[in-house]
Design a protein that fits this description.
Layout: H1 2-13, E1 30-35, E2 43-46, E3 52-55, E4 59-62, H2 68-79, E5 89-95, E6 100-105, E7 111-114, E8 120-121, H3 122-128, E9 139-146, E10 149-156, H4 157-161, E11 170-171, E12 176-179, E13 184-189, E14 195-198, H5 205-211, E15 225-228, E16 231-234, H6 237-242, E17 255-258
Helix pairs in contact: 1-3
Length: about 260
């Protein structure tokens, strides 16, 4: 819920509604065409695969890549003088279908969404998908294909929320926006709050134990160890906490086990 509120705020800061004035039309989009005073000419038209629309009297016109304003000017120019005197053409997009992105992972409504602006950012796409679920990572992956090769860009929503203008990148048609689950490590045994600890790059054993509330008096710190898959890594937590031994960086899914002292 918190992330949904943050994203809503970001949406408002970027103008809220889609910037339709700069939206470039494309194949599949449906346009509502109105010629004021000419009811028989008003209708909905879909942009064909070749980028054309059929306009009464004017015939086939290429509109793909044009904004609504540019398309309206083109239609007006075709109608003016030859068919109508001073035609007034009004266009609006009824269905956005030409520029779509896939949103998956930890969002409330994963699906394929249509971009309704020429400049749609990651935070806006996430809001369209209902915001992040509680177990979702604040780092989003945007996959993009260029010349047949896919590349990944990581978007840190913490930076976006702090107002970092360069962090909230624009998405383009064909992008795949993936919200991975939160990565965690686990602290088990003689600590105040055993359980999962959110993972972040650079998280260390000492930090994870502190987040888990610190060790109990009954803890055998010198007998602690890390389970990393099938590998058991012995550590001397007493020396790490005391600064006599270098702290150890953790990896996602690591489990720190702190056994009970036999005394």
């Amino acid at each position: 819920m918190l992330w949904l509120l943050l994203l809503s705020s970001l949406w408002a800061q970027t103008g809220g509604a889609a910037d339709l004035l700069s939206y470039p039309l494309g194949a599949g989009d449906v346009i509502a065409l109105e010629v004021i005073g000419e009811e028989e000419m008003s209708r909905s038209v879909r942009v064909a695969a070749n980028g054309m629309i059929e306009v009464p009297l004017a015939g086939s016109l290429a509109v793909a890549g044009l904004t609504l304003d540019q398309a309206g000017q083109a239609i007006t120019a075709h109608l003016a003088g030859r068919y109508l005197i001073n035609p007034q053409v009004v266009l609006k997009v009824e269905e956005f279908a030409s520029k779509r992105v896939d949103v998956s992972g930890g969002v409330n409504a994963p699906a394929t969404y249509s971009l309704q602006s020429a400049h749609t950012r990651v935070s806006q796409v996430l809001l369209m998908a209902g915001g992040l679920v509680d177990a979702a990572s604040p780092v989003v992956v945007v996959r993009r294909q260029r010349e047949g090769v896919w590349s990944d860009t990581r978007v840190d929503l913490e930076r976006v929320n702090r107002g970092d203008a360069g962090a909230d990148i624009e998405v383009v048609a064909g992008d795949q926006v993936y919200v991975p689950p939160v990565e965690r490590v686990y602290v088990q045994g003689e600590v105040q709050k055993p359980g999962a600890v959110p993972y972040n790059d650079g998280l260390t054993v000492r930090q994870a134990v502190i987040i888990a509330g610190g060790p109990l008096d009954s803890a055998r710190l010198s007998g602690a160890y890390i389970m990393r898959g099938e590998e058991k890594l012995k550590i001397n937590l007493r020396q790490i906490i005391g600064g006599q031994q270098a702290d150890i960086s953790l990896r996602p899914s690591d489990t720190i086990v702190i056994p009970e002292s036999p005394i």
